[in-house]
C-alpha cells in the first residue's frame, strides 16, 4: 500500500521535513510506503486532500515566534471531512542563502512571510537596506538566486544542499528556541488523542457570548492550551473561535464539555483528536544519510 502525502513545497521546506518524518513513521509502524507531492500553497495542499488527490496533507499551524498560521485554520473551517491526525513539532533553524560575494551586496531577500518575520531583528541589524519579498514557501524563490547575485533567501540547510546554494549566514532566527508545529491531516482522523482542536461560531457576537463556552471547560477543569479568533469573512466584527484542549479526547470531561458547547453555540466543528510529537532532526537526518 502507498499513501500520497501532499505538503507545502517545493522540496527543502520545513513542511517537507515534517512530511519525511511522518512518512518514516508510516513505514516503521504500519509498513506503508509514501509518495510525497509538493504543493504551491497551504490552502491548495488541504484542497488536494479534500478533492481526493492526496491521502494525507501536512501543513504548518503554529510557530513559537509568529504564532498561528491563519490560512491553515481558515481552510480547515471551510472544508468538510478533514481531520487532524497528529501534531509534529519541528525545530526551525533559518539560514541566509545567496550567491553574492558579501552580505553588503544583497539588495533583495525572498522567503515565506513567517520566515521573514522570525528573522526580522537580524535583518534590520545586518541587512537594513534589503527589500523583503514574501513567497509561498521558504524554497519557492530559490531559483532566483542563480540569476540574481544581489538576492538572498531565508531557508533551511537542507534546501541549501538540495539546490547547491551557499549559506552566507547560519542560524539567523531572532530567538533560539524557534519551533513550528505541523498538523498531519487526513479524511479519517482518530477518535483518541491527548489534544483536541475545535472551532465554533455563535448566532451573534454579543457582549459576554464567549464566557459561556469558557465556563464549561473551566468547570470541568479542562486545560485550554490556545484560543484564537478569526473573522467569518461575512461581516466586519463577526468572528469564529478556535480552541485547543489538552486531555483524553475520549474521557468523560471532554466528551461532556463538547456536548455542552453545542448548546451555547450555533456551529461546532471538531477539527481532530491527536497526539503531539517533537521531532529530533539530528536523528531524522542521520537515518536518511
Reconstruct the topology from this structure.
Layout: E1 2-8, H1 14-30, E2 33-39, H2 42-50, E3 56-63, E4 67-68, H3 70-78, E5 83-91, E6 95-98, E7 108-111, H4 113-118, H5 120-126, E8 131-134, H6 144-147, E9 151-155, H7 157-162, E10 167-169, E11 179-186, E12 195-201, H8 211-219, E13 223-231, E14 239-246, H9 252-263, E15 267-278, H10 281-288
Parallel strand pairs: 1-2, 1-3, 5-15, 7-8, 7-9
Antiparallel strand pairs: 3-4, 3-11, 5-11, 6-9, 6-10, 12-14, 12-15, 13-14
Helix pairs in contact: 2-3, 8-9
In total, how many beta strands?
A: 15
What structural class do the secondary elements suggest?
Answer: alpha/beta
Sheet-strand content, in percent, reads 25-35%
| Topology as a string of helices (H) and strands (E) | EHEHEEHEEEHHEHEHEEEHEEHEH
What would you say this structure looks like, in words?
30% of the residues lie in helices and 34% in strands. The strands form 2 sheets. Strands 1, 2, 3, 4, 5, 11, 12, 13, 14 and 15 form a 10-stranded mixed beta sheet that branches. The protein has 289 residues and is α/β, with parallel strands linked by helices. The longest helix is centred in the N-terminal third of the chain and has 17 residues, at 14-30. The mean pLDDT is 91.
Amino acid at each position: 500500500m502507498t499513501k500520497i502525502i501532499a505538503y507545502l513545497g517545493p522540496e527543502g521546506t520545513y513542511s517537507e521535513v515534517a512530511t519525511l518524518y511522518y512518512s518514516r513513521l508510516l513505514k516503521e509502524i504500519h509498513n506503508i510506503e509514501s509518495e510525497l507531492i509538493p504543493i504551491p500553497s497551504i490552502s491548495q495542499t488541504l484542497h488536494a486532500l479534500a478533492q481526493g488527490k492526496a491521502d494525507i496533507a501536512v501543513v504548518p499551524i503554529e510557530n513559537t515566534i509568529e504564532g498561528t498560521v491563519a490560512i491553515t485554520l481558515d481552510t480547515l473551517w471551510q472544508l468538510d471531512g478533514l481531520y487532524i491526525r497528529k501534531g509534529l513539532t519541528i525545530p526551525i533553524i533559518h539560514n541566509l542563502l545567496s550567491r553574492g560575494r558579501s552580505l553588503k551586496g544583497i539588495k533583495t531577500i525572498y522567503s515565506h512571510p513567517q520566515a521573514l518575520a522570525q528573522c526580522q531583528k537580524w535583518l534590520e541589524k545586518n541587512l537594513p537596506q534589503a527589500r523583503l519579498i514574501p513567497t509561498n514557501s521558504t524554497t519557492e524563490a530559490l531559483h532566483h538566486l542563480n540569476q540574481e547575485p544581489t538576492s538572498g533567501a531565508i531557508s533551511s540547510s537542507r534546501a541549501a544542499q538540495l539546490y547547491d546554494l551557499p549559506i552566507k549566514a547560519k542560524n539567523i532566527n531572532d530567538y533560539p528556541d524557534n519551533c513550528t508545529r505541523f498538523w498531519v491531516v487526513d479524511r479519517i482522523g482518530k477518535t483518541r488523542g491527548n489534544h483536541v482542536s475545535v472551532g465554533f461560531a455563535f448566532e451573534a457576537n454579543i457582549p459576554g457570548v464567549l464566557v459561556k463556552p469558557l465556563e464549561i471547560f473551566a468547570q470541568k477543569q479542562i486545560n485550554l492550551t490556545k484560543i484564537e479568533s478569526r473573522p467569518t469573512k461575512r461581516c466586519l466584527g463577526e468572528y469564529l473561535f478556535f480552541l485547543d484542549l489538552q486531555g483524553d479526547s475520549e474521557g468523560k470531561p471532554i466528551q461532556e464539555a463538547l456536548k455542552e458547547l453545542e448548546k451555547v453555540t450555533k456551529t461546532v466543528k471538531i477539527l481532530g483528536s491527536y497526539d503531539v510529537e517533537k521531532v529530533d532532526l539530528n536523528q531524522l537526518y542521520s537515518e536518511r544519510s
